[in-house]
Every structure is written in structure tokens, then in C-alpha cells.
Amino acid sequence: MVQHVVPVILSGGSGSRLWPVSRKSYPKQFWPLLNEKTLIQETALRGQGAGFSDPIIICNSEHRFIVAEQLRDAGIQKSRIVLEPVGRNSAPAIAAAAFMVAEQDPEAILWIMAADAAITDEGALRGALVKAIDAAESGRIVTFGMTPTRPETGYGYIEVGAELKTVRGVYDVSRFVEKPDAEKALTLCSSEKYLWNSGMFVVKARVFLQETERYEPRIYEAVGQAVRSRHTDMDFERLEEKSFAAAPDISVDYAIAERTELAAVVPGSFGWSDIGSWDALWDLSIKDADGNAAIGDVFLDGAKNCYVRSDGIVATVTGVENLIVVVTPDAVMVSHRDRAQDIKHMVSRLTQAGRKEATSHNRCYRPWGFYESLIQADRFQVKRIVVESGAKLSLQKHFHRAEHWVVVGGTALVTRDDDLVLVRENESVYLPLGCVHRLENPGKIPLTLIEVQSGPYLGEDDIVRIEDVYARS
């Protein structure tokens, strides 16, 4: 197997079908849904375990510090995190990675995968990957087709053609089939000609760019310019915004895979799932004798074939079957398992109603740690703030609120106008309206404090950053 294979991880989705756990502010790839590792950590380690080059991760600017921290926590010290200034779907994102890899080696092979898929049989994956790389070496654009185990309506399908003469076990793609309705899915699933489309690709950087230029010249020009004009932002590579925004918003399937004459497929059965719904997660989870998957503080009585998860208060489920129940600190979702794919419609309704729960969690992650609201009222708000060891918030001020900080764990170093104040556990500090202030954690353990805000307006946009080590505006 050639060694210059570059894993390219796409981390741009919001995973709305796994609401309320997965939301735009903290989507499913950052959650440990199957074990102690998050999905993006498992994906990155998969490439590292195969002995390939350091991964390239394409993500949006809002998630850059989350991605960096989760990769560090997984022991991945070297990676290239590329920031999309605006979302433009998978085709422009992959093109950006291809341009960047081609700067050093146009013949390098990209192993393109989403950050939020699960694979349970790594050995079978490696066997399929060997075949895919061999076919990619000969100039093909190779995807992986999964043997269907059920009539799934949430996946696209691939019709398998003739076996390649050059590589055994790799086949031409006759056509791609859109996500079907239930009746058509049953027909496709019962035929040996059709496979689930995994969305993973293996292709030379040069070949991908060649086909992009042929079928989507606007993407080729816009993304090429965005890559050439990119700049470094701390440990990140930020694509130039104006050029990248000019690229069409289109998936790699529509842009390239369904149009190219080079498409090939490796059939496989290695426990792949895009975890695109709670029902899919139930299928992958460990279940009790009654077919229930229970995660968190959950009690069941007479329930069968249910998925029940609580990340907050105790959840009890009695005498029901085939339900999905998910509890978070600020939302509860109940659905029949057969309607799991429709949860995204409820997210759309919440968005139209202006509910922040549609896109944001109560806990908001920042490069220095996180905060969460405990009490919200008309003219005051109470938050818990956790700052990691050695981290600091921006030097800032507010026009509409005063703040009172009470340290309940660790030690805080507080800038208050011209003063530096060391605040220890069970001590407090008051920050009047308009005061220029900063919070730092000089200690070796996380700093936890309770913040009481008071004033006529308490929105997060009432922050004037004067200086910020994280280069936020």
C-alpha cells in the first residue's frame, strides 16, 4: 500500500436529525455517542492507525477550537485544520483539500470521509481500503458501497456495474440512486445490485481537481483562488472569504461522482453507519433483553425496543414500544422510531419560531472553556463559567450590564481597569458597568465561578473586545 495517503475529514454538518443532542453550535461529530471517544476523534484515529499522512480537517470557523482540542485529547498532535469562511457543501471543501495537497504532491491520494460516521469492523475497512487505493492509483474515483441490511430511506444507493479488469474486487458504478421512499428502498435492498452510498471517497488529488475543472469550473476557479490567498490564523489555515463564497453550494455527489466516467465502488460490510438518525444509533447501541438502549439517568418499566437517553434529569419510560426519548438540560424529544428521519422537520419549525434551542445548547463552548446559563430573568442572569488551566478570556467591557463573580473552585486572576485582583475560592469581585476587565486562570486546575449579570440588556453581543489571544472580533 502506498504511504502518501492523506485523510481528509469533512466536519461541516449540523446533524439536525440527532437533535436535541446535535445542534449547529455543537453538532454530532463532537459527541461521544457510541463510546468514550467522540465521532471526530474516532475518524481521525482511523486514519492515523493506518499509518497515513497527518489529516486535513475542513471545518467552519465557529468550531475551530473544539476541533483542535478534541484532536489533542485524542493524541493527534499534527494535523491541518482548514477553516471555511462560509458553508459551501462537500464539493468545494474537498476541492480545497485537493488544492492544498497538490501543492506538495499532486499524485498523493486523498481518503475523504465525513467526521460523523461510525465503523465497527476496522479490519474489514483496511481490506477494502487496500483495493480502493489500488484503483485510485490507476486514476479512478473510488467510493465504498455498504451491503444493505435493511430498506433504509435515509441513504443514497449505488448500482454496481462490471468488475474492473485492473483491480479485483472493485467495480464500475452504473449509477447513483437518490434517497428512496420506503417502497423503493425495499426493492433496492432485496437486489444484490445495489449498495448503500457511504459518502467516502479515495482519489488522487490531481484526478479530483481534473474532474472538478471539467464538470464544475466555477468551483475550480473560486476554490483555487481561495486556497492561494489563504492565510494563517494561529494554528489554523483560513481560506480567503470572497473567493470561497463565489463557489457553488453543491455536494460532491452532484458535482463530480454522478457525472464522472471514473467512478468506481468497493463493496464492503464493515459496520458503517452515518448515524443519521436516532434509530440508526439505537441499531448500533448495546441493548437489554427487551431491545432497549438506555443511556444516562434512565429507568424503564415494561418498555420494548426503545432508545432512551438523558443528559440531564432522570428519565422514566413505562409500557411503550419503539420510542425514542432524548432528554437534555433544555429540551425533551419524543418520537416513534419509524419517524426518526423526520426530527429535522421539527428543528425547522423551532427555527422558524425563533427558538434558540433549535441551534444552540444551553452550554456554550469557547476556546478557553465553557459557560452555561443557570437562571434567566428580566434584568438579571446567573451563569456558571469554567476556564481551563492557563486560559484567559478577552479583555472586554459591556455597555449595558454589570457583573459579579463568585469563585467556587480554583483561583481567578481578574483585570479590573488598572488593577489586577487575585480571587480565591469563596471570594468574589464586582465589575461595574463599563469597567474594562479580563478573567484568567493562573492555576493548574479548572477555574469555576458563578457570574451574576444585572442590567437592562444581557445579550452576548454586548461585548466590546479590546484584546483577545484567540483573534476573535
Kindly describe this structure.
- Helix 3 packs across helix 6 and helix 6 crosses helix 7.
- The chain is globular, with a radius of gyration of 24 Å.
- A hairpin with a 7-residue loop joins strand 7 and strand 8.
- A six-stranded antiparallel β-sheet has the order 18-19-20-27-22-25, with no helix packed on it.
- The mean pLDDT is 94.
- The chain has 473 residues and is of the alpha+beta class.
- 41% of the residues are buried.
- The protein has three domains: 269 residues, Spore Coat Polysaccharide Biosynthesis Protein SpsA, Chain A (Alpha-Beta Complex); 79 residues, no CATH class; 105 residues, Sandwich (Jelly Rolls).
- Helices cover 23% and strands 35% of the residues.
- Count the domains: 3
Provide the low-confidence segments as ranges: none
| Tally of DSSP β-strands | 28
CATH homologous superfamily grouping of the largest domain? Spore Coat Polysaccharide Biosynthesis Protein SpsA, Chain A
Largest sheet: 6 strands, antiparallel
Cα gyration radius (Å)? 24 Å
Q: Could you say which overall geometry the principal axes of the C-alpha atoms support?
A: globular
Strand order of the largest sheet: 18-19-20-27-22-25
Indicate the percent of residues in helices. Answer: 10-25%
Briefly note the structural class of the backbone.
Answer: alpha+beta
Give the N-to-C terminal Cα separation.
Answer: 45 Å
Topology:
Layout: E1 5-11, H1 39-49, E2 56-60, H2 64-73, E3 80-84, H3 90-102, E4 109-114, E5 118-119, H4 122-137, E6 141-146, E7 157-163, E8 171-177, H5 182-189, E9 194-204, H6 205-215, H7 217-228, E10 231-233, E11 236-238, H8 241-245, H9 252-257, E12 263-268, E13 272-273, H10 278-284, E14 293-301, E15 307-318, E16 323-328, E17 331-336, H11 343-352, E18 363-366, E19 369-376, E20 380-387, E21 395-397, E22 402-409, E23 412-416, E24 419-423, E25 428-431, E26 437-440, E27 447-454, E28 464-467
Parallel strand pairs: 1-2, 1-4, 2-3, 3-11, 6-12, 14-15, 15-16
Antiparallel strand pairs: 4-9, 5-13, 6-9, 7-8, 7-9, 8-12, 10-11, 16-17, 18-19, 19-20, 20-27, 21-28, 22-25, 22-27, 23-24, 23-26
Helix pairs in contact: 3-6, 3-7, 6-7
